[in-house]
Amino acid sequence: MMSAGIMALLALVVSGAAQTCNDATPGNCFEESSLLSKQSLRQRQMQTETSSDVPSTLAGKSFYFLVIDRFAKSGERALDSTKCVKAADWENYTGGGYCGGTINGIREKLDYIQGMGFDCLWITPPVASNSFMGYDAVNLWEINPHFGTKDDLKRLADDIHARKMCLVFDVVLNHMRPMKTNGKLNMSLVPFDKPEHYNQRGIKPGQSFADYVETPPGPISAFDPTPDSKALKNLVEEGKVVCGPSNPELTECACMPGNSGIACPSFDPQRMVEGWFPPQGDLNQTVPFVEEQLLKYVKMLVNEYKLDGLRLDTAIYIYKGFLSKVQKAAGIEILGEATVNNMTYQAGLMRGDHGERVLDGLLNFIPFYQVPSSFCAFNMAGEFANYDEQGTWQREADMRNLGQVLQTQLTSTAYESLDLMGNFVDNHDENSRLANYCKFDNLRMQSALTWVMLSRGIPIIYYGTEQGLDGHQRGSSMGQDAVRESLWQTHYNTNTWQYTHLAKLNRIRKQYHIGAGGAAVKNFTKQTMVFTRQAGDHEAWIFINNVANTSKDETQSYCPGPLPANRGQAWIDVLSGSIMQRYLKGGCFQAPDSEPKVLVLQANNAVR
Asked: What's the distance, CA 437 to chain centroid?
C-alpha cells in the first residue's frame, strides 16, 4: 500500500512542471516535468516508510569525512595541540607519516561532529597499513595499531549508532601496499603473499616476479593520460572535438578513464584493470583465491563493525563483474570512487550494459571538477596536460561551468540514482582545500558550501573545512599529504563561521526535508546560479553566486525566482530568517545582498 507521503509526492510530479533556462540560450526554456524521477520516488519511499534508528539508505544523508591519523589524538598525547603535517615515504616506500590521531580520539570528538548536524561519519581505512592514510594495506585482517584496536573500532560504531548516525568505512580492493621497499621486492602481505595474486601485464617470458617489480620502469601503469591529453588540444583547435562542460562525454579538456574515440584513442579498458599504480601491488580479482578473500574481507568489515555504508577506493580500476559481486556481498550501499569526466561511462558504473547492478552509488567527480573554477577561478587541474596550470587562478570565476554539467546530469535518464551520488568541494587527494583555492574569500566559500550541502545527492564535507584549513600542493614537496594536515591545533572551535554555516545548512536539510528527491537547475549565468530542491511537499529555491567578499552588501539579481506567495503565506530566507516577499519582482528575485539565499514558502504565522 502506498503511503500518504508518496501519494503527495506523485501529485507534485503531475502538477508541478519546473521551468529551466540558461543564459547561453536566451529566451529558450524547457519544461522539466520530471521533478521526481522513479529513482527519487523509490528513495523517498525508503525515507518515509523506514522506522529504524539508523538510516536504511545513505541517500540524501550528509557526510563528514576524516583522516583517522589527522583528526584527533587521545590520552596524554591529546594535550599536545601542535600542528602536524607529515608526509609518508613515497620514495623508498617505507610508509609512516603518522601524526598520532586515533579511533578513541574520534570517539571523544563525536559531539563536535554531531554539533554540525552530520548524519554519517566516513573514515579512512583503519586496516593495518604501510602509511598513515591506510590505502596501502599490509594485513587485511588486522587494525592499524597506530589507530587503536578492533574493540576501539567496535565501540566507535556503537557510539555512532547510539547517536542515530551512520558509519562508513573506506575500503581498498584494487591493490595492497607497494610491492618493493628500499628497491627490493617485499611480499610480506596478508593474505596475498604470492606473485600469482597480482596482475602481471607485460611480464616477459621467463622473467621473475621480483625482476618485474624491481626493474625500472616496473609494472605497466593502469592509465597514462598525458599523450592523448596533449594531442587533444590540436583536435579541439581543428574543430574535430569539443571538450568542456558543454560535452557530457568529455566535460574536461583532458583524457581520463572512460574517454575514448577520436578524442582519446589510447583508452584501454583491459589495461585499466590489469595495470598498476606502481609500485602498489595490483590485485588480480580473477584469481579465485583473491576474489574469495576480498569478498570475505568486505563481509567481515560490514558484520564485525556494523557498517552502514562503504566507500570503495579506485573503483574504476576494478572490473565490473567483480564490483557487482562486491556490492552483493556487502549488503549495504557502496559509493565508488570514479575519477571520470564522461557521464555515460560514469552512469555505467551503477548499472551495467546489460542492466546488471554494479555499484549503488558513486563519488560525483564530474561536477566537482567544475567547482573550483566556478566559484573561485581556480585551476584544480591543467587542461591538455598542461600541469603548470594546476594550482593557479584564472582572471574570473565562471558559474556556467558548474551550471552546465549539473543541468545535464540532473536531466539525464542514464543514472540509477542521483540521490546516491556524493558531492564535495575538496577532498584528501586533490590539489587544494576550499579555503586556499578561494583565497579565504568568505562569501565565495559560503556559496560553495551552500551548493554542496543542498545540491541533489550526498553532501560530503572534508574534515577541517569547518576550521578553514588551507592545505595545498602547489609549492609543496609533500604532494597529496599537504592537504592532510592535523585538526587539533584549531582546538575544535565551534564558533567559526564555517562551523555555524554548516550546522545551519544541516538543520535546514532536516527541518525542510531536503534530502533525497527532486532537483532542477533553473538558470545559470557567469556569476549566478538558481536551483530548486524538493522540500517535503514544496520546493526550496537556492540562490548562489561567485562574487567576491568586497561585493557582499551589493544587491544581486537572479532570474527566475519563485512566484509571489498567496495571501497568508510568505517566502522566507531560512539562512537569515528574513522575509523575502518584497524582493520578488517581475518573475525574478532581486536579492538585497550577495549572500546565498535559501527561500522556503511558509505560512505567515510560521514566520518570525
From this structure: 17
- Cα separation, 283 vs 290, in Å, equals 7
Distance CA 74, CA 544 (A): 40
For 172, the grid coordinates are: 581498498
Q: How far is the C-alpha of 155 from the C-alpha of 149, rounded, in Å?
A: 10
318-355 pLDDT tens trace: 999 999 999 999 999 999 999 999 999 999 999 988 88
Compute the distance between CA of residue 302 and CA of residue 308 in angstroms, rounded to an integer. Answer: 8
- Give mean pLDDT, residues 304-311: 98
CA 38 to chain CA mean position, Å: 23
User: What's the pLDDT tens digit per position in 75-114?
Assistant: 999 999 999 999 999 999 999 999 999 999 999 999 999 9
Q: Which of 346, 173, 118, 132 is nearest to 252 (CA)?
A: 346
Single out the residue of 66, 312, 300, 308 nearest to residue 172, CA to CA.
Answer: 312
Handedness of CA 62, 68, 73, 75 (dihedral sign): positive
Burial class (CB in 10 A: 0-12, 13-18, 19+), 393: middle
- pTM exceeding 0.85: yes
> Is residue 55 within 8 Å of 63, Cβ to Cβ?
no
